[in-house]
Amino acid sequence: QVQLVESGGGLVQAGGSLRLSCAASGSIFSIYSMGWYRQAPGKERDMVARISTGGSGSTNYADSVKGRFTISTDNAENTVYLQMNSLKPADTAVYYCTAVKDGMRYWGKGTLVTVSS
Questions:
Q1: Is 67 exposed, middle or buried (0-12, 13-18, 19+ CB in 10 A)?
Q2: What's the number of CA atoms in the CB half-sphere (13 Å) around residue 79?
Q3: Each residue of 28-64: pLDDT tens digit?
Q4: Which of 6, 44, 75, 77 stands 20 to 30 A from 25 (CA)?
Q5: 73 vs 89: CA distance, rounded Å
Q6: Where are the beta strands (DSSP E) in 1-117?
Q7: 68 to each of 25, 46, 53, how far by Cα in Å?
Q8: How many CB atoms lie within 10 A of CB 117?
């Protein structure tokens, strides 16, 4: 089992920045990848960014956040971050941390990000 706890959400004005953190605990050995999804009211949960933790460190981003969001990890602290810059009202959503290990996907409980215009 992998436990994920997100933090860092909140209210920010358009054009501002936030950094989300996700601390992983439990059976974290051999986690293949970690990432962030988001779900806006009435919409599906969509991938925002993901990073391979298996060695390559490769990253992928949704087109809507490329150039504005950056995903990174601190392996010593078993934490994944999402730096969000130039935020837009369309970025308002609950952001969920996720980890993939042994073919299973684990989810955090989410943190709310609200961007005001």
A1: exposed
A2: 14
A3: 888 889 999 999 999 999 999 999 987 778 999 999 9
A4: 44
A5: 26
A6: 2-7, 10-13, 18-26, 33-39, 45-52, 59-61, 69-74, 79-84, 93-101, 104-107, 111-116
A7: 28, 17, 21
A8: 9
